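Bug #77: duplicate submission created two jobs. Keeping one. Sequence:
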Amino acid sequence: MDNIDHFNLRSFDLNLMIAFDAMMQEMSVTKAAEKLRIGQSAMSHNLNTLRMLLADDLFVRVGQKMQPTAKARALAGPVRTALSQAQNALHATDSFDPQTAQRVFRLGVTGEMDMILLPVLMQHLQQQAPGIKILSRTITSETVDGMINGGEIDLAIGCKSQLNTGHFGEVLFNSEVACCFNPDILDLPLPMSRAQYLASRHAVLSQTENVAGCVGVALQGMGIELDVVLAAPDFMPLLAAARNSAVIATVPCRIANQYAPLFGLSYCSMPIDVAFPPVRMNWAVWTDKDVGLIWLRDQIRTAINAIAPDRELQAAE
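Kept job's structure:
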């Protein structure tokens, strides 16, 4: 992009360009003033200012008519293009047609949303908005605020439990967790008891240095210690570990519904009532009126509603 000399341009009022363009179209001070809905004296003042700034007469009288000078003719095309681009820029956020839009949206997502939201969302977008592309970025509770504030992501989905100043947001759903295990390795009933769950070894999600993970930390707050033998930052390693070893993988219910059967795992609701933060969607205040993002937020809600909710968790064998 060409550099813009803001210092020199700051004294060049956009109204002068508008006056110039109107004069080029009408070739009459009176008609140009009427077109701009200003007085003839104001129009003459704009033209005199332009002549001084550009060191050219711009428009001269030849007989009964006004004629543009060579410099005015040379300026006419670029000025009209600039005004057209300015007009388009001012109206760019007023409309959004998903069928024709060409845009990249940047979503900050947790591992859960990566696995359950993005596949459904992309299926929906391919049908409704073929020109839309999604750039997925991994977020954590430590990085999400900086990524929103820095404009690295348009939306954050999954791990922000509280709103900061300058952010808008909403709850997408309340999170519940499920226990997944290989019935060929672990002889556990469905549903399993609290005692059976606590007596087992566990694989949990952790995005920090704490091996207890988010599930273990939540239980520690209740005075319960889990025997965690695997903590990983994504859910796939947990499910793979449960498939191959005598561990219970504790994952969100929506993950269990979609992926546990693919690993040959049985699953049921966690037998301990633990309150986890709801899954939220958050965005910066300054993007709240972006019609493209308004549309995308609605598509995300639709995609979430299409995914089997936690209450439909099946105790599957």
